[in-house]
Amino acid sequence: MAELNAEQARAIPLTTRPFGEVSKGYTVFRDRDVLAAKITPCWENGKVGQAELDHAVGVGSTEFHVVRPTEQLHDRYLLHFLRQPRVRAAGELRMTGSGGQRRVPTAFFEELAIPVPPLPEQRRIAAILDHADALRAKRRQVLAHLDSLSQSIFHDIFGDLRATSTVAAEASKIRTGPFGSQLLHSEFVEEGIAVLGLDNVVGNEFRWAERRFITPVKYETLKRYTVSPGDVLISIMGTTGRCVVVPDDIPTAINTKHICAITPESARLHPTFLRGAFLWHPDSLAHLRRQTKGSIMDGLNMGIIKAMPIPILPLAAQEVFAKRVESVNAQRAAIQRAVAADDELFASLQSRAFRGGL
């Protein structure tokens, strides 16, 4: 690993990025070096890669470690070793600092014990893991295609349709969650009535992440914030502009102040269509850009959302779109299950590989 100050780094003629892009020193790396993230959440998400350079040297920020293979240590073997979940977990235990600034220290890599079988064996193990990883990548490519397919369907059907109505005109109810002292973090409990937040919508699909609950007694005071199946949830604070439809199997739940909940008028507006308009319709997106002055949708509010223009057309046409999206989502769920199984099998293969089990 090599870290240089700005003056030293400028003396290096070949780089992979302009020096002006980083402000607190530079990390130098070479072709085939293994690069491992230092800080949360990148390290916890398994961000370990390998440099592939046309130049003799690369320069980047100081937020990653450079782990250099040797004549006795094959580069792909090293890469796969550092990508193991157990190595990532061990690195997390060694992190220093607090909050979002926690870092994996250099000493973790310096003291890391790596089994080093003969080079032919390392190459064999690396080839097996490379092949297995390539199969996982192909499955993820299919998943990425399905992720964009619903958007393509929306544009094909509705992209040229002008927005002639607004969210407020087509919704029966629009509300945000409880503010301030209405709901304190200290009032969350281990089980009870679910409380939905940003983590439930951040991926533009409804998912359970961190579970938060309030007591039934507390819920009685917050019933007006109840979320129902078919509601459309939009994030308005933090990671804003994310949008999901609440699934049919949702238990009794409320939303936090970070979420705006919309109940569509069922006779005129399908929730899947409303979500699509919010995420993809050009008139709707232009409205959001104007209101947020070209920023990253920071600070959405109910006024902006109520005034958002949307196209409107017969409910039957909206339902045709919703059925096509439902079919895409079913395929996507099947691929996601396969990807999860791939990941589990690959982790098992990694463990066996570095314990002499291949």
TrEMBL record:
<keyword id="KW-0540">Nuclease</keyword>
<dbReference type="InterPro" id="IPR052021">
    <property type="entry name" value="Type-I_RS_S_subunit"/>
</dbReference>
<dbReference type="GO" id="GO:0016787">
    <property type="term" value="F:hydrolase activity"/>
</dbReference>
<protein>
    <submittedName>
        <fullName>Restriction endonuclease subunit S</fullName>
        <ecNumber>3.1.21.-</ecNumber>
    </submittedName>
</protein>
<keyword id="KW-0680">Restriction system</keyword>
<comment type="similarity">
    <text>Belongs to the type-I restriction system S methylase family.</text>
</comment>
<keyword id="KW-0238">DNA-binding</keyword>
<dbReference type="GO" id="GO:0004519">
    <property type="term" value="F:endonuclease activity"/>
</dbReference>
<dbReference type="InterPro" id="IPR044946">
    <property type="entry name" value="Restrct_endonuc_typeI_TRD_sf"/>
</dbReference>
<dbReference type="InterPro" id="IPR000055">
    <property type="entry name" value="Restrct_endonuc_typeI_TRD"/>
</dbReference>
<keyword id="KW-0255">Endonuclease</keyword>
<keyword id="KW-0378">Hydrolase</keyword>
<feature type="domain" description="Type I restriction modification DNA specificity">
    <location>
        <begin position="46"/>
        <end position="141"/>
    </location>
</feature>
<dbReference type="Pfam" id="PF01420">
    <property type="entry name" value="Methylase_S"/>
</dbReference>
